[in-house]
Specification:
Four copies of one chain form a homotetramer.
Chain A lengths: L1 E4 L5 H13 L3 E6 L4 E6 L7 H6 L3 E5 L19 E2 L5 E2 L5 E5 L6 H14 L3 E3 L17 H14 L3 E5 L13 E4 L7 H7 L6 E4 L6 H13 L5 E5 L16 H9 L4 E3 L1 H5 L5 H11 L3 E5 L17 H17 L9
Parallel strand pairs in A: 7-8, 7-14, 8-9, 9-10, 10-11, 11-12, 12-13, 13-14
Antiparallel strand pairs in A: 1-3, 1-4, 2-3, 5-6
Helix pairs in contact in A: 3-4, 3-10, 5-6, 9-10
Chain lengths: 341, 341, 341, 341
């Protein structure tokens, strides 16, 4: 870690700061220039708070030179993590999975019909919302416990592992038969929830928050991993920018950056990012080309109920076409493993 | 609500969409132009999901014309809400309160010393963190239950009501003696927590999330209010932008916009927004001039431990100077009530 | 266009506003609700300023229902525009072009060597900066006139058309032998420059500004087209967000949105967007998969001078590998035209 | 400047990089750790391009420790710059000025009437647009040369200095009688224009671009100052964020940050930032309390033409009320100089 001190820092203040660093067990290297003094800190600086340092009146800037994440850091774990979701499905390390299903579980027939349709189209994991985070208290909040039961039954009937979102640690008992627990974008920094999930023994998929940096996403993975869970999947689902023609801005360079920084698998959700079904196919193809380990797509089965091709969800036929394109891209770029061909 | 349909929408699709609106109990007005068709919806549209509508393949855009928040909406409650915090302290409707205290409660002596110092300086409410949301699992997470006990004792000793942050509904029992419960920026859309807090019978202060719009802040207030609680205080604490010279960008126009849109009191936190103590005084003065009902400021008492004037926290003397400036601004702008002079 | 009026708008104010609309030749439809009045405007609203309308004290919101761009609008020109760059090179309507070359033209040998290398690798158009927009007045500003001469000579020697950036209309005479004139991101809303370029008779490539919306990019195209030029190429090169691990955030959904909204060709520049050569290959592949009509990549030829693989520029070998990947993706997705195979 | 190298940088690459630094005349200090190597550079690093460095494949991050701006830097010029606008009006160093006038000059009577009205209300400098940067080529582009003549005549008639925006260096001859030349937000990085203006001998007001950092604003000032002009005024006018209830987000902490970093005067424009006249008074008061050296406000004189209190412009009466509030705030905070009382 490097701290640059302000021109007007007194000798006494500098000494007092350096003593404090030394108390924390760090080696302190001081370089004095005419207009500033630079302090280099060597040792375990993960317990130094950069924000606190930056706010000190004598500090002009503080830069963390080593990344604050350890368990998630590729430096310390160069090999890709392969998350074993079920006996037959893995994600990461060259294993690719399409995750598909409806936005919300509505009833037994709907989820089973969609499950069969997406499986035919090429999906390996079934998604479906039971607890729905909604901006408005007046909007439909999901079927809750019943929704989870319907989802896991559809998973069992088709042999597909299932993923669904948790909103509070108090719901954890209901997730016993769920294969991957999803943390939504709005809960990415719900640290109490992350800590609990790290102890639950299941793979956790964490969606990037709408205004969270890639580093913060990795720090949230670190929370889960520090609880013992090593099977964390990261998910890019769009960030908030000034652009209004798309609901959010899908940040595909995030995929390439995460590939460098971490050994954890990376999934992309183009449905929520764009908010429009007609933008999902090109973005799914681009996500595959950028090197994603999985793509998560909303699919519905009832064009009438879902209203004229429906929102951000694809029809099963559209999904099958996207799945074929994604496979073609991966094959063209030689990303496929033998078993996937 | 107004929906603009795409040029290529078929007559059948338009009819199917209109039927769906009518099923929801809405009056539907259709205007056809050469290049688009506009549908106006009159009635209770709060249950129509704009995002869903925008995503439909035949819809070019959908605009909510009536605000989706009701309980928080000044249209339906023109009078300012005055939150009665204790027998002696109110916020809103012309009642102004300075809220001050340390970032974290560290020990009994510290919190009591700071409490007395900020009270002398002009604070009416004591703040102090017991459960700390930290980006890194390796950072100090607060004293928890013990911290709350120390804070409420310091409040009792000085006669000041206290405010502190909750991170999970499971902690609610520990907050029995807390006067205002704070929801942090990262939990602003932790909807399960908001619902629980709406039933707890205490005033709730909600901090705006780093990437949340003013409308979303009002919708989060709506969650709390729909649970029965009417004593909600809104807090602007900086939003995330591309600027790097400040930790976040304090959005003071938010104060003026909220004044128009809602009857709820609005508080500003310049300490967390700027992240630097030297920027707190000018921003506190500006917040007062913009019409805030309260200002929340971090104050520490131990210059040595807090390292050379310390981060985003002011010394008690600096706080007293800011408090005097804030009062001067309010008096100059005739914002003061008789009892406050 | 639709305007929603505030609850407290008086009858007289509403009448005065409607009269003003009628003076502008618009049909005015008024719908009164309990809490608001909605005004629908039919006719040519392109001369109504939405910002002005929104700012009126009686107006709650104003929404433009028809797009303010006309010449660039796909609604009025459903067929893709094919920009004929030279006898042999076209962009758009299924014609794809790789554009490559160094960040700056440095000397005759350098630009000719890189030109030959990128041509071998698969580039069809040669790029190279002569006038460089630099944030600091102390940074290298480019070779200027001499740089343009070296670039056009290298183009002639290899038979490749060339593209380079203009910074001021006063430089236009120097661009006589340049095939495509580039408007940089920082000049995207230099409206005087856009007007002049619309009259110069050459294809114009406009880069999206760092904080400009897709709509604003189309409006800048509209400026050029209103001057008579129909050969406008749009270029996505990353937008400014809060993320710091990449220089800018490449917005690939912009490609898919532009495809819908306009008939003009769309090019992606992953080099400037990411700022790091190791992120260019995955983003170039993703851009191809998203449907870009061209990709613009920085390539250097002198690993020593360019310092250890160099910044955002690829080596010629790395470029050739990316070009092969891009072609493989396009072939896999059946995007290639017969002549390109 | 500090560069952190990647773990996999070879000894040869590190040496080659260090040699390159030494060629640039810098002292190089290397510290090796287990997972990274840190290079500290001492000397004049202003010619090293941070972006280029960051993009090198062996570089993990590069941080400029000394600011790249010199002429504008308070470190080297601790005293406030006072810009002498005319014999009677100064800005900076405790001298405060209200700048007011219409968005556009419309005709002789209009500009003279508004000039007299704002002068009565307390304005010291007259503003009025003649060349208008408009997003759409179909919108009114200003009266041009005739507008400048009307503005300067109104200035002469009232004895007020005038300010108006330039859009291209080719217009410079028309600005002979203009007292302050304004560079608009969209031209903040039109570097050719900035260079020309640095040689014109007049005070220059630079508006911050919608997505430009404070550092970039200072670098644009540096461009003008490197041409010889020392009379630069900086203007905060709102930045682009995700918030939609205001046109832009006024960043008032920018005022406090600039006060620390530079000796140049700082002006705030709440009219363009908020886009709504009802938000101008609270934001003008807040700007004064934050320590601005001037405030720029749009005022119109014709309620009928300007449509029901009009957009972002105030009536003369509203302006006079704001001016009184601003003066009250400055007096309460003892910001006034003797001559201003």
């Amino acid at each position: 870690m490097i701290a640059v001190l302000r021109q007007d820092a007194t000798q006494e203040q500098i000494e007092s700061l350096c003593d404090w660093f030394r108390e924390k067990g760090l080696d302190v290297h001081i370089s004095r220039g005419k207009y500033q003094t630079i302090i280099g800190l060597i040792g375990d600086t993960s317990r130094i708070d950069t924000d606190l340092l930056c706010g000190l009146s004598i500090v002009e800037s503080a830069t963390r030179v080593s990344e604050p994440y350890k368990s998630a850091n590729r430096k310390f774990h160069p090999e890709d993590t392969v998350v074993q979701v079920s006996d037959t499905v893995s994600i990461g390390g060259g294993h690719f999975a399409l995750i598909a299903g409806p936005c919300s579980v509505e009833n037994e027939e709907q989820i089973l019909t969609v499950a069969r349709a997406v499986q035919r189209g090429g999906a390996k994991i079934l998604r479906g919302g039971a607890f729905k985070p909604r901006t408005s208290p007046y909007d439909f909040q999901g079927l809750g416990e019943a929704g989870i039961r319907m989802l896991t039954e559809a998973g069992r009937a088709t042999g597909m592992p299932v993923i669904t979102e948790i909103m509070s640690a108090s719901q954890l008992d209901l997730f016993a038969d769920v294969d991957i627990i999803q943390v939504g974008a709005r809960n990415m920094q719900n640290f109490d929830l992350l800590k609990e999930l790290g102890r639950c023994g299941k793979p956790i998929l964490i969606k990037r928050g709408l205004a969270n940096t890639i580093k913060e996403l990795l720090m949230s993975a670190e929370y889960v991993m520090s609880g013992g869970c090593q099977d964390v999947i990261l998910c890019e689902r769009g960030i908030r920018t000034f652009e209004t023609y798309t609901r959010n801005t899908l940040d595909l360079s995030c995929v390439a950056v995460l590939r460098e920084r971490t050994h954890l698998p990376v999934v992309v959700d183009p449905s929520h990012a764009t908010g429009a079904s007609r933008l999902v196919p090109p973005m799914a193809r681009a996500a595959a080309a950028a090197g994603a380990d999985g793509i998560m797509i909303e699919v519905h089965n009832d064009p009438a109920a879902a209203l004229c091709d429906g929102a951000q969800a694809l029809t099963p036929d559209q999904f099958a076409a996207v799945a074929a394109d994604v496979q073609a891209v991966r094959r063209a770029l030689k990303m496929e493993r033998d078993e996937d061909r």
